[in-house]
Amino acid sequence: MNKQSIYGLTIDQLANWLTEHGKKKSRAQQVWEYLYRKRVTDFSEMTEVNQACVQLLADNFTLQTLQEHIKQESADGTIKFLFKLQDGNLIETVLMRQKYGLSVCVTTQVGCNIGCSFCASGLLAKSRDLSSGEIVEQIMNVQLHLDKKGQGETVSHVVVMGIGEPFDNFENLLDFIKVIKDDKGLAIAARRITVSTSGLADKLIEFTDKGLQVNLAVSLHAPNNELRTRIMKINRAIPIEKLMKAMEYYVDKTNRRITIEYILLRDVNDHKQEAEELAELLRPLGQKVYVNLIPYNPVDEHSQYQRSEQEAVLSFYDTLKKGGVNCKIRQEHGTDIDAACGQLRSKQIKKTEAK
Ligand code: SF4
Prior knowledge:
10-stranded mixed β-sheet, two-stranded parallel ribbon, alpha/beta, single chain, binds iron/sulfur cluster
């Protein structure tokens, strides 16, 4: 049987596990230090920890459930990692060099059930959730890659925006956030973590009530139900009105801003009329929303969608601004590699199937 990833445990869970197995609670702190500060890759490197305790951990946990399968590096410094999981499934993780630091985009599920019609990942239905350990390990693998370069760089920001719907893997998402936020470990501040949802309204309310102080992004992509259902199947079950109520709840309760993700698809959702409708829709959220306009990266699987003309992008932006909505056009990364979310993975799966 495969061993569980030790990175899946929060420090409290590790301390409890150790005490349940007759070890001192205080060992958790020491082990944690080796995992996240010294970043060992084998239990045997935990030389200052009681050796019986190290053996116990090695017998029950693993430090590696992910194996690097492919790594693609872009001229702008973006790196796409394709990792193989213990069950052979492939997942993508992306490192992006931003002006403000190094940001990693993580995957939370193998495949996805949300069914966004423009998404390369949405074609492959969810086969399972990732464990919290598998999500943390994506960050650890990227960090180890940076460590090897020896330039003292560290992952400073995390976006939960890769393949999968994070709120559909809720408990593991919460543990993942607790682990990477922990001051004694990677210490990635809550304000540098962003969780992006396709709009599971009930979960959004539950998430709000957790009071985690992380950033929230919501993928909207259309200002009305008719169009949104065409683009995102999930809208049939959770219409815009319900999502707006959940977002209003979030803003009222946290006083934090929400980022609205809007992928611009040529002649589908990029007209002036949709920009005006969007400004109207978002009005109740006032200055507490920020719209991220995303130029679409065409993928072979969805030839019905094309990238919007630059003129349409700028006009959409201007209309939103005139409507009093904060917005920006997203800067692109890794355009010379398989840049669209899920593209590298789906290409690789196709190659394997073709063999
Ligand atoms: S865009 Fe995200 S939520 Fe939508 S199908 Fe793709 S992975 Fe799932």
